[in-house]
Amino acid sequence: MSKDKTSPAGMLSEILALEESVWQALISGDMAADKKALHPDFLGVYPSGFAARQDHLDQLKQGPSIASHFLSQARLLQLGPDYVCLSYHARFTRAGAGVEEAMYVSSIWQRAGQSWVNVFSQDTPEMTG
Fold this sequence. Notes:
Helix content is 26%, strand content 50%. The chain is α+β, with helices and mostly antiparallel strands. It has a single domain (8-125), classed as Nuclear Transport Factor 2, Chain: A.
């Protein structure tokens, strides 16, 4: 039985799948998939500073930037009829690195016709120790 996309659980499932597509683009080095998921005016707020869509795409110029990831604790906040905020915990390993990192992520998605695009994302590193 498929989840109704208009139900809270169905919408969370749909948006989480879209967020996973961004992670998969980073793993596969797929710049076109990454670009498709991000709004032209995308803004990322990261520990390293602000990033536009092109900055997000540029990290894939040398190939995949992420080797593996695992998302958990996902929750969805409805911000209006055409906007939702997905927040979750991510564990990941960067390509070429052997150290797992963890962070909390909040991504705002905007309805675009029959689908959604990511307009904003903020990463907060998990405090350790």
